[in-house]
Amino acid sequence: MINNLVEKKQFHLNMFKMNCSSGFTKMNSLNIFNKFIVKRASSSNKPNVSVYNWKTKTKVFLKNSRMLTWYICGPTVYDSMHIGHACCYVKFDIVRRILENYFQRTVVQVMNITDIDDKIITKAKRLNKDPFQVAREYEMEFVQDMHLLNIKQPDILARVTEFIPEIKHFIQNLIEKDLAYSSVDGSIYFDTTKYNKYGKFVKVPDIVSNSIKKSSLDFALWKAAKPGEPFWDSCWGPGRPGWHIECSAIASYYFGSNVDLHSGGIDLLFPHHENEEAQCCAYHDVDNWVENWIYTGHLHLGDNVKMSKSLKNTVSVKEVLKTYTANEFRVLCLLSNYKNDVEFNEQSMEMARKTLNKFESFLFNCSSHLKNKQNVQAPKTSLLHTLTETESEVLNNLADNFDTSKALQSLICLMNAYNKYFTKDQRFDCSSLEVMLASNIVSKTLDNLGVDLVKTNVLDNSCNIGLVIDLIVDFRTNLRQLALNSGSSLNKQDVLKLCDLLRNDMSSVNIKIQDSNKYSVWTYSEAIPKELQELTES
Fold this sequence. Notes:
Elements: H1 5-19, H2 26-42, E1 50-53, E2 58-61, E3 67-72, H3 83-101, E4 106-113, H4 118-127, H5 131-148, E5 156-159, H6 164-176, E6 180-182, E7 188-190, E8 219-224, E9 239-241, H7 243-255, E10 259-265, H8 269-284, E11 290-296, E12 299-300, H9 317-320, H10 326-334, E13 342-343, H11 346-371, H12 381-399, H13 404-419, H14 432-448, H15 465-484, H16 489-507, E14 511-515, E15 520-524, H17 530-537
């Protein structure tokens, strides 16, 4: 019996010494491993995280604080979420995971749900439904789509209609400061001519004459009620919130006069975020309301054509997931920096699929190597050096404006270095320690970035399913070996045929068995088998 921690450590140390190959002395093997541990520990200091701030047009360092407040502009729930929206939310989910998993920041994220809007009212009239019913239905669908894409839900989902008192208070404050006025139609507008800091994000367009507003740049804070539309009473008359005021009121309610991160698609930069910044700085009497404005690029369908509901070229999340997996779509987003545009077409998705397959194959080969017994080798200095360099590169790339593209490339270089040692017997010609460390770096990085490994190489073992499959595959392996070693060719072929039938049957439920001369290994894929896909579509 091993009674205490010291004895356990000494036991494992002795076992490691015994298992070192004859090509290295025991002491030299331990020295190599110790150097790796020391170097790994010395590189544990986290670099500062830089982010591209669109207001300053420069990279800036995030504040050195354990907690970050983040407001993210949510959907107007009048239709299904398309993959242009999905790309934006997946990218911000990746950024959030990087901050939480690599830099130990506690991110408090709030997202609004615009559940009252002209588009919702128009859709409700067309469907002959109540606008609030339409909004709730699409809100539920939005949350479901976020789950399907493995996007972490914000800490708070805030419906606009639940913040009417806060919005009215916000507007009243601006009126009292003489920064808002009532128009002839009873609506309330923000007066950009009296706010001399308007235009922080872009050079504002020229002012043109307007019959209702003082300036064409002025924007609605409160829209006067129209016949047959939802409204709330106020001291200025019945109406409903304008678009920009909702985000300002909700974010201010939770975060006050300063927000660390505020994000959205690049098309929200002007006028939406310009207007938010103006009215919030005026409300809070500050020069800057948000520390860092971050944006994702557009999703294009090829030929630089933006996906947009107004262009009627949208593809819904559920439509895409009929052809591609959520992991493949996420890898597409990972292959470029979050602020860059993304091309969505067969070629780009095939590249994402191949990249994901490359990771899956490597993890599969690592798993096969570690499952099968073999002679233990001493660690190779060159591979251990590659491991430490890869860890450092991944961390530094993610700290540099969340550059996931370069981080993935570092992992691919690591896998290429290991694949040089991969043999036809599905093993690596190196130590199990090195294989285990490489597998850990790759799998942990993918998991930290939101790639759902449960749907790639690992099954849910809550019911010991993995153990059952192991037993089946082991039985099949023994049966194959018996047949291969049999002197009767007839018996051999019959048994091998049965093994092939079992392999094919397992494939129909996404369990792939791969044979070598002596071993068989298995993996699980989330891809829908062709036979089942044809049945579901028929």
